[in-house]
Amino acid sequence: MITLFLGTAAAALAVLLVAFVIGVRTGKHKGVDVAWGLGFAAVAVTGLVITGFTPVGWLVTALTVIWGVRLATHIGLRGRGAPEDPRYAELLSQAPGNPTWYAFRMIYLLQGALVWFVSLPVQLAQKYASPSWWLIIGVVLWLVGFAFETIGDAQLARFRSSPSSKGQVLDSGLWRYTRHPNYFGDACVWWGLFALACLHWTGWLTLLSPLVMTWFLARKTGKPLLETHLARTRPGYPDYVARTSGFFPWPPRRSVSDR
């Protein structure tokens, strides 16, 4: 077990160190968001090699790599030619001392630790889990999450590419039922992987991993920061918030203007 944990921690750290070097050379740290998905993929592949290619290990590795590479590719393509992410620019503008090393600690090292911790269900599933009927629950949850995330991202990309959508709010498709189908999808993916870890009793010990991921998405760095930004830049966003579920998909409420 020690070998597994050390190996996967080294894999996560290696990916984030490469991202850090690129960020320092380019002067933009937004690339860490690409490294986020690739870090999970690296941890999963490393764990599979260390644990010896079990059937469930192959499954959780494939699901994690598919999710991580898709997310990294989507973020990388979306951010091509764009300026620095405002979140990181604001964070580094308040850095005490050397901003480079502050970025390493507060952006890269922190995200590397989160990658390792959130991926604990994957690691324990690779080590201990064996197939049973419970596997169906994990795979279905993963499929639901992956569909929400992929379709939601595609709908948002199409909306942003239209000149008529500038300054407007996307409130159709999956975005009609939740303000964050991509974040909801992320959460479902990781609850699905947790369910696969629970094919063995040790998987239940990793309950904090999907809880932490969901908390960051819904309460910390995902939904709150994005909604604060959109409330300042989209005139119709408060009305959208009033009628649309914040996280879990749900039929929209009547807005004030419809009454």
Automatic annotation (TrEMBL):
Gene3D superfamilies: 1.20.120.1630. Coiled coil: none annotated. Keywords: Membrane, Transmembrane, Transmembrane helix. The chain crosses the membrane at residues 6-24, 36-69, 101-120, 132-151, 189-218. Pfam families: DUF1295. The keyword Chloroplast does not apply. InterPro entries: UstE-like. GO terms for cellular component: membrane. This is Uncharacterized protein.
